[in-house]
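Record 1 of the preview.
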Amino acid sequence: MNENKAYTRELITFNLVKANLYALVSIIPIIIIYVIPYYLIWRDSINKETIKNLLIYYKHNGYLNPVLIFTIIMFLLTIGIILHELIHGITWAKFTKNGFKSIRFGVLWKFLTPYCHCKEPLLIKHYIIGAIMPAIILGLLPAIISLITGNVILLLFGIFFTMAAFGDFMIVFLLIKENKNSLVQDHPSEVGCYIYKENKIKSS
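->
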């Protein structure tokens, strides 16, 4: 932050419980956006005979074991959640003076929600890039690859981590209307951020 300029600080927060509820509702448009193109491209491969053969194959090789399925799902979700926060941190670190030293990770235990906190103020445009990057890398890209390869696991992965980024989308929605020259900094303990707006100097 430029110490030679005067700023007005404004706090922006949102209710995490409501954000999670909105994320659940968002599954409807996300499925429309992701699943319909997948179905249109791969519908010739989606039939009862194909599904039956796949189930027989998976059952024969022990892949339908409930414990194994649960373990794989939890492993993928855990890795994805870690990567989500790490992508935030790596991206924001590119725009900070002190690099990764300005990034902090933690968990909001009352919401059981992991977070990535940038200790330096960032230009709004840089903050937005870091905010949406996990949705692009973990949500959009796997979904696109699934359209190319027909891999339904990647499609489900993309759907879940697009939903998981809904809180990021809410912050971006709040910031996108702000002046691009303003600065933004994560709140150290709440779900939200501070906006530092440069005071306009009136000419005499």
